[in-house]
Amino acid sequence: MGANLDAGATSDQPDAGRRGGQGIELLDHLIFIVQENRSFDHYFGTFPGAKGFPRDRRGRISVCIPDPVLGHCSRPYHTNKQFQDGGPHSHPAAVKDVNKGKMNGFIKVASAPRTFCANARRRFTKRCRPFIGPKKQPDVMSYMTGKQIPNYWRYAREFVLEDRMFAPTDSWTLPAHLFLVSGWSAYCPVPTNPMSCRSNIDLKSDKEQWNYFEPPKYGWTDITWLLKEHGVEWGYYVGEGTCWQNPCDDQPGPWGRSLPGKNPLPGFVSVRESHQMDRVLPHQEYLDAAAAGTLPSVSWIVPGNRVSEHPAGPTGIRSGMAHVTRMVNAAMEGPDWDSTAIFVTWDDWGGFYDHVVPPRVDRNGYGLRVPGLVISPYSKAGKIDHQTLSFDAYLKLIEDRFLGGERLDPETLSRPDSRPTVREELRGLGDLARSFDFTQPPRPPLILDPTPFG
């Protein structure tokens, strides 16, 4: 297990912050911004000093993986495109991509479905031309640099880049977001009985997934249960127009609704039992709170459809980066900046190539590597964090900062469930506190243009 957080930095007082605090107690506000479906190598595989693409003696990218359509191996290529096709990103796809640690199944997996441009029938068509590389590679082998995603690379240069952040499970968006807020993904035959739940990282059937306007289906206990018990304020911020209980306004806002896979908290029995449904709020509420200095202790921000970086989505990467930048700027420009830490990550790999073998920590994960950033006045400047991390580390930091170190542990929960693993206590999990230097004076904000391309 990673080193313990500062023993003096565990407090169950939500307002213990910088007023006499030290270590992580200087952080009154933890903000988790989640984007969608990009691998680490796809965004940061050429970032200086990071564990990016393997290279040969001449410094050239040495990766070349089987391409069944072309009949030979294909290499990564640089792209300027803002729209990608990506590849399948289910649990079966993850298993095949990893291919027993060979990390060479990405093109084969993307070539199988008839709906992806990697397929032999479609790869050479005019429609798919924008999603194919210069040597006819599918875009699961594409990568970007700071010219395409300048704000993300600027944050990485100025703050902390995590190059061993793994998705919490080797599956898709919904299970990742369930782990984000609860440390588990399961199916519960009797949702009101948390002991009926059993691990499930596919969640592909209607009976397993909660959808808007339905009764809750997720029966195990989420982190907001503990936050409520400790009197800690939180907010989960979703796209304008998102509605999960009738009556609804049918007119979505400018950023579009967040789908239930990115907004699972209303599907938890524990959220409804603790009467916290009103803490799921639109993005504008976050922006208002940041400006007013009334941010809750814990904030999660997930994208609406029009600002998601999901491949094959309605908008491109620039729209997603602009959204993230606006959320970061809002915290930096508000009065809470000096007591804030912002964590930016992506929920899964989206089918894009990554060369690092995910650690197998339990039956449910980890998943493939995704980018991670830590942005704070106390972030170590220009640090690349090589610790093994996952969304479990986010839960652990929340618990150590605000809950006196209490875990989502059936042995101690007032609402025990049947989870097989206490994810926050897994051996080898890194310590997010190492991303900070709490002895340094708070760093000034870095306000970036959300639309640097004009």
What would you note in describing this structure?
The model is unreliable at 1-19 (pLDDT under 50). With 454 residues, the protein is of the alpha/beta class. β9 (234-238), α7 and β10 form a beta-alpha-beta unit. The strands form 4 sheets. Strands 10-9-11-1-12-13-6-14 form an 8-stranded mixed beta sheet. It has a two-stranded antiparallel ribbon with strand order 2-3. The chain has a single domain (7-41, 147-435), classed as 3-Layer(aba) Sandwich (Alkaline Phosphatase, subunit A), CATH 3.40.720. It has helices at residues 40-44, 91-98, 106-111, 150-158, 173-182, 223-229, 269-273, 283-292, 317-333, 391-402; strands at residues 29-35, 65-67, 72-74, 77-78, 142-143, 160-162, 186-187, 198-199, 234-238, 280-282, 298-301, 340-346, 372-375, 383-385.
**Radius of gyration of CA atoms, rounded to a whole number:** 21 Å
Give a count of the beta strands, DSSP E runs of length 2 or more. 14
Report the end-to-end length measured between terminal Cα atoms.
Answer: 45 Å
Helices and strands, in order, run as EHEEEHHEHEHEEHEHEHEHEEEH
Strand content: 5-15%
Structural class: alpha/beta
Task: Output the number of helix runs.
Answer: 10
Biggest sheet character: 8 strands, mixed
Tags for this entry?
10 helices; 454 residues; globular; alpha/beta; single chain; 11% strand; disordered N terminus; Alkaline Phosphatase, subunit A
